[in-house]
Amino acid sequence: MTADFRPNVNFEYRFSRDIKENDVESTKMISLVMKFAEIENYNFPHIESILLYPVERAGKSGSQVFYLDLYVKKVEYPRRYVAKFQDITKTEKELSSARDAAFAQICPKPCAAYDEINNLGILVYNLAKIHNHREFRGFFLDLTKSDQDCASALKAIFQQVGRHPNNKEDRIPFLNDYRRYIDRRSAPLNRLNSFANSSSEYNGIADLAISINKHYERIASMLDKNNVSVFPYLVHGDLHARNLMLNDGDPTQTELIDFGWTHYGHPAKDFILMEITLKYMLLHELLPKISRPESIGLHMPLMAFEQFEQFLCTNGLELPEVVEFEKHIEGIDGLYEHHHIGLRRVYISLIEVRKAALNVLNEYCTHHDPESGLSPNQHFFISHFLVALGLSGFSEVEPIWTLVGLHTVGNSIC
Ligand SMILES: Nc1ncnc2c1ncn2[C@@H]1O[C@H](COP(=O)(O)OP(=O)(O)O)[C@@H](O)[C@H]1O
Ligand SMILES: [Mg+2]
After folding, report:
1. pLDDT in the model for residue 215
2. Residue 298 pLDDT > 90
3. With the C-alpha atoms ordered 217, 222, 227, 231, is the resulting torsion angle positive or negative?
4. Ligand 1 neighbour 84 (Cβ under 6 A)
5. CA of 94, nearest ligand number
6. pLDDT, tens digit, for every residue of 319-336?
7. Domain extents for the chain?
8. Which residues sit opposite 135 in a β-bridge?
9. How do residues 48-68 score in pLDDT, each as one tens digit?
């Protein structure tokens, strides 16, 4: 490396309205970007300048995320990366799990640098794989995109998921593997208990919460009594609609981002997280976007949602074709055209999610879990229950639908 190596780093972002504070913040980050540039200069000598600008939505987990464009001499266009700034512990943790993912070739090789004094780390991923990229969430909520294209994106990404069993990791008691979802800061079990103890004003909710609690106790003691353990698979761990990117012009080109939750555990999780996102988050966001006559309310009757969930439970991992689903919902009272359109979009996506889950769980049960005697459907619904329980305190999920879902799924697990 030459002694005069000093690319120009620019942030198209203000960290604070106060100029001095802004300079302090950006100086910390620039010194980390310089460390990254030194590492990358080995691959691409003659780095001239680096430009950072914020992504549409910065990370929710307290991280700051920027697109990073790196320019070299004699080339007009940049090489693109994403840079994530967060504290050192989080950076180290994400680096380590991203390395596992990169080894399995489900993510590009990450690069990190640290500033111990200010407790700040940078994690950089290259963005070479997908052009014209967009979050799956925005794509799904964009009604100019077809239902089939949404499903194709899921089909594409799920070909990469659940492919990496690893018997060099220890088996984990089933419930322990789901602790990372259940034992959250949002304390879903406590929340459930307070619903269960709530006054008679909320009778319906209290009843639901009591029944869900009972399901939880029953499932936990069944898993415990039978010593059910998990054969570890590499899982992304946080596969929701904002951590899946696709090419806006070709939704079969997909890629995962955000490897902070990647670990070895039960392979059903990744499918279930996406299913929960579709049912309890995206459907709720989608309905108001679908046009409807002014005289008709937006609201979907809870009974109808329960019947939708019931249909999904009854049919398990082998969901019928969409025409059969349409016939079924025609018979549900209180649903209007906009509900049908929304439910249909979600359902077409769920078909792909469950098809892919069935493939993986069939393999899982046959080769890696002949002892427990649980079927692929049971693995799926028990995992669904536990993950949904963990997410039930999140502000992004529709709270009542999530409770109805937990109740219905819990009922279906005998
Ligand atoms: N590799 C990437 N490619 C494109 N966009 C990305 C990438 N990584 C992050 N982003 C954008 O930044 C947002 C937040 O990044 P993410 O790594 O998911 O942070 P958090 O851990 O806070 O959720 C994402 O939702 C996405 O819009
Ligand atoms: Mg994320």
Report:
1. 97
2. no
3. negative
4. yes
5. 1
6. 999 999 999 999 999 999
7. 8-126, 133-412
8. 245
9. 999 999 998 766 788 999 999
Ligand nearest to the CA of 260: 1
Q: Is the CB of 107 under 6 A from ligand 1?
A: no
Ligand nearest to the CA of 240: 2
For atom 23 of ligand 1, the residue with the nearest CA is 59
Asked whether 335 lines ligand 1 (CB < 6 A), one says no
Q: Which amino acid is at 159?
A: Q
Q: CB-based contacts of 248: which residues, under 8 Å, 6+ apart?
A: 132, 133, 134, 139
Q: Is 258 in the pocket of ligand 1 (CB under 6 A)?
A: yes
Q: 133-412, what's its fold?
A: Aminoglycoside 3'-phosphotransferase; Chain: A, domain 2 (3.90.1200)
Per-residue pLDDT reduced to its tens digit, 67-119: 999 999 999 999 999 999 999 999 999 999 999 999 999 999 999 999 999 99
Identity of residue 393: G
Q: Strand 47-54: give its sheet, edge to edge.
A: 8-11, 47-54, 64-72, 79-86, 120-126, 111-115
pLDDT, residue 173, reads 97
Q: Please give, one letter per residue, the 3-state secondary structure of 3-68.
A: CCCCCEEEECCCCCCCHHHHHHHHHHHHHHHHHHHHHHCCCCCCEEEEEEEECCCCCCCCCEEEEE
Residue 177's SS3 state is helix
Ligand 1 geometric centre to CA of 236 (Å):
14
Percent of the chain at pLDDT > 90 equals: 85
